[in-house]
Design goal:
3 domains, 501 residues, single chain, Chitinase A, domain 3, 48% helix
């Protein structure tokens, strides 16, 4: 314990925030005390580098991941906590700590003290306040100072690892210039689109062709295991008054009590004048997100027994009570069931083929007209061919384009055009095929580049370092070959919730 820190202390800025680079995975699990699980068949949380990780060590790493995310997101932590995969972050931290131990990286108490002292929210009138520090840890982080301090120590360890892996990275003058140019030069283009959709609906399909496609691609028509959920939704009332909230809560508690005594949604819904609905069959791969249920709950439904009541589950829409009404195993769609999908796929495919042929014919006509009259206006040529012209104002690489979204081939072609070659070839885009014309090109402002060169160089260095460190972490995780027993325990708990206490 750093007793000195909790008595007075000093202040200085620290680079521990670099450790956020290790937060590579996002999921849905919130905070949890894993020691509450019935350990049963497993005696540890898992393994990394072939060595066992105790439940205590995993729980500690899990909580440290939570503290760091509170620091990172502040007031927004509660809003996004459901999207964070703290389990994955806990394993990442353990793997990095294993590597740091191997490299004999140690952080003295003085560095931890200085790091904590730099946080503005621990200060009062510009100076570190022990009382504020302890109050924030107690009421916001809900942890003991010793735990928080060890999390900061780990973050400083990660910063040392980061520094060790990235210290030699440098960006050359040419790389800086080329990347600045790539990000800041702009083009303005116009294009004509030959949509595949215009030809898909008229594409002629031979019945034998459809049957042959089915026989050659049967593996694509396996339907995964799926479930049909029956549910009651007690919706939130708009602008509900505070005095009415307790009444709603009482209603939910009463329905939960009724379902415990009579686990039948239809009976209880009838008694409470509520409607029972069904989701229809859906799979893990394509869950019914429109319900508004947490991702974890949607997956949990595949683990519970048929007829088991789940709820109340609070969502933005209201409170759900759910029951797995039916389960259906994986099966191969027969030819009749698969025919609509095959017809759609083949129609799209044929439509694209026709659209490409048409686009190549139009391109030839455009090139001929432009060759015969070098001063011919692209827009006029397109109009003469009875095609639609779309103009895109100046844009840079990677920018979202209306109608086209992010089309890499289109973007590359647009920036490769020049005064000597203003018209592209036939380009495939999500909607079909396009022919692009260069309207204008805006090079970088050389004076502005000189002004921004230093800050841009620093940004580029940071990006390269982060990319390098991310790859380092990825390689390290492959070496660690983590074996996670936590997910097994959660699955067991979901199947037997009565054994979780």
């Amino acid at each position: 314990m750093l007793k000195f820190l909790r008595k007075k202390g000093v202040a200085k800025k620290v680079l521990w925030v670099l450790a956020v680079v290790i937060i590579l995975s996002f999921g849905v699990f919130g905070t949890a005390n894993y020691l509450q699980f019935q350990q049963g068949a497993v005696s540890d949380a898992g393994k990394i580098f072939g060595k066992k990780v105790s439940f205590d060590d995993f729980e500690k790493s899990f909580q440290h991941a939570r503290y760091q995310n509170i620091l990172r997101y502040g007031d927004n932590y509660q809003k996004i906590s459901q999207f964070l995969n703290l389990e994955s972050e806990a394993w990442d931290r353990l793997i990095l700590l294993h590597e740091a131990k191997k490299r004999k990286i140690k952080i003295p108490d003085e560095e931890v003290i200085k790091a904590i002292q730099d946080f503005e929210f621990f200060k009062q009138n510009g100076a570190f306040s022990r009382q504020i520090y302890e109050d924030i840890l107690r009421y916001v982080f809900r942890c003991h100072p010793r735990d928080f301090e060890e999390m900061i120590r780990e973050s400083l360890v990660f910063a040392k690892l980061y520094e060790g892996e990235t210290t030699k990275i440098q960006t050359s003058e040419q790389e800086i210039y080329d990347e600045y140019k790539k990000r800041n030069e702009k083009v303005s283009v116009s294009y004509t689109l030959i949509p595949a959709e215009d030809y898909s609906k008229d594409a002629a399909l031979d019945p034998k062709e459809i049957e042959d496609f089915y026989n050659k691609n049967k593996d694509n028509f396996f339907v995964p295991p799926s479930i049909n959920i029956e549910y009651i939704l007690i919706p939130f009332l708009p602008e509900i008054k505070k005095e009415e909230q307790s009444a709603v809560k009482s209603e939910i508690e009463e329905i939960a009590k009724q379902l415990k005594n009579t686990p039948d949604l239809k009976t209880v819904s009838k008694e409470n004048n509520l409607e029972v609905s069904e989701t229809g069959f859906f799979s893990r791969e394509q869950p019914r997100f429109e319900l508004g249920l947490p991702f974890e709950t949607l997956h949990r439904l595949f683990e519970v027994k048929t007829d088991e009541i789940i709820g109340p589950e609070e969502t933005t829409k209201g409170y759900y009570f759910l029951r797995v009404k039916e389960e259906r195993g994986s099966y191969l769609s027969d030819f009749k069931e698969a025919t609509p999908k095959i017809t759609e796929a083949l129609s799209i495919q044929k439509g694209k083929e026709i659209a490409k042929t048409k686009a190549e014919e139009y391109l030839k006509q455009i090139q001929e007209k432009a060759a015969n009259d070098p001063s011919a206006d692209f827009a006029a040529i397109i109009k003469d061919l009875d095609l639609k012209l779309t103009t895109i104002p100046a844009f840079s690489r990677g920018q979202y384009l209306p109608e086209l979204a992010v089309a890499k081939e289109f973007e590359d072609a647009a920036f490769s055009l020049s005064e000597q070659k203003k018209i592209s070839g036939v380009l495939e885009v999500p909607q079909g095929y396009a022919i692009v014309h260069l309207d204008s090109f805006a090079p970088i402002d050389e004076n502005k580049f000189k002004e921004e060169k230093t800050s841009f160089s620093e940004t580029l260095d940071t990006e390269k370092k982060n990319e390098t460190f991310s790859q380092f972490v990825t390689d390290l995780k492959l070496q660690a070959n983590p074996q996670d027993n936590i997910s097994k325990l959660k699955a067991a708990q979901n199947k037997n919730p009565s054994n979780s206490n």
